Amino acid sequence: MNIASFIIYCIVVTFTPGPTNIVILSSVQHHGARKTMEYVWGATIAFGLLLAASALLNHVLAGIIPNILDIMQIVGSLYMLYLAYQIYRMGRAEAAPMQTASFASGLFMQLVNPKVLLFTLTVIPSYVLPYYSSFSGSFLFVLLITVIGFLAFVTWVVCGAVFKNLLQQHHRLFNTLMALFLLYSAVMVSGIL
């Protein structure tokens, strides 16, 4: 196993912008870092569960992946569109409070996040199972990848907290850009383009 390639792949996928990271950054601006950590814990648990499911059920999933991915793409795209709309409305007088900073929201977002689903369905079979067939070996890699994901989420929380004043000064522009990034993610995931 090329451990450097494995670590780089995990870092690139988890630290780069995606629906969960965008929501984390936006939530810090509107709910603060402490409240956003509830979302981070939910996202981390779902991330670990998806990795564990991939490790434990790899052979079973291989036969049904196309059906799962189609359903998750639709659900994930719709959820991302909803989040894009909620983020766009944040900070406006008529906007209702958004509940994206909750544990349940973080958990659900990860479970329907196509970026995460594709990552968890590829990283374990590609990097781990060819070299470590034991349950304990797979479990250690699931823990390692989950920790990397958690560190990525916390990095986005810290960046949101550090740049909070700047982002709040330009909240309309920031909210519009974050909503557009989520809209783009939803379109790309849905396969429209």
Automatic annotation (TrEMBL):
Transmembrane segments: 6-28, 40-65, 71-88, 139-161, 173-192
Superkingdom per UniProt: Bacteria
Pfam families: LysE
Record InterPro entries: LeuE-type
Gene Ontology CC annotation, any one: plasma membrane
Gene Ontology MF term list: amino acid transmembrane transporter activity
Keywords of this entry: Cell membrane, Membrane, Transmembrane, Transmembrane helix
Biological process (GO), any one: cysteine export across plasma membrane
Lipid bilayer topology: Multi-pass membrane protein
Localization per record: Cell membrane
PANTHER family with a match to the protein in the record: ARGININE EXPORTER PROTEIN ARGO, ARGININE EXPORTER PROTEIN ARGO-RELATED
Listed name of the protein: Lysine transporter LysE
